[in-house]
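Hey,

Quick one before I head out. I ran the complex with farnesyl diphosphate overnight. Inputs first:
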Amino acid sequence: MTEPNLGSTAGENVPQHIAIIMDGNGRWARERGLPRTEGHRRGADSVRRVVDACGRLGVKYLTLYAFSSENWKRPPEEVKALMKLLIQFLKTKTKEMVERNVRLQAIGRLHALPPECQEQLHRSVEQTAGNTGITLILALSYGGREEIVDGVKSLIESVEKGHLDRAMIDNDVFSKHLYTRYYPDPDLLIRTSGELRLSNFLLWQLSYTEFYITDVLWPDFGEKELEAAVAEYGRRQRRFGGV
Ligand code: FPP
């Protein structure tokens, strides 16, 4: 059996890869009598703060659950507002990402996104491709089960085309057929707003990841909260199933 793709730590006890389920935008807005979209707008400000803070800490990969496969079921106006926000975020922040050496990537069924969103995403990914600092990975129209199904289809295709012998299929080979094939598995998963579930996020990749759940709502999450999560991670002992 091969070893899982575990990733490793960057600096002293700093996770190399952090994944975040950014939850609580709607509740943040409701508590203030504001429309849900205002919560998402404030959530986009948190994204910027957290990317910067991760860069400063020496985190190499940050994966953000920005839009799930299930989020398509939300009211059309909210979906539209989220797509608009994403386009606006990419349009206004790409220059800053280039300046700050951030490399942008995206995972998910990206072809399901509106064409304008795909085009802007493509442009931003291209413009930041040469950057060597933190890699920011946006999970968009992303579902863990969908990713596994797509991975199985990709494996079958490779076998049928004669590129892969089915006897060679193991954990590592399968990992190379997932959207995340270029990245190490997350070391730390953060979920905001206190819910205790995975919500179809990175089901394969989170096998040995440390979880950190906070009641803080995503629009209130910033550098201080990130540092608390990283400090807690530093106190964990990772055994990967050993003793
Ligand atoms: C969950 O809050 C959040 C989302 C479904 C979308 C996340 C999007 C952003 C943070 C903003 C845009 C992102 C980028 C990368 C620019 P919720 O609406 O489920 O909150 P609730 O559970 O309180 O209703």
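Strands lie at 17-21, 61-68, 103-107, 135-142, 188-191, 210-213.

Talk tomorrow,
K.
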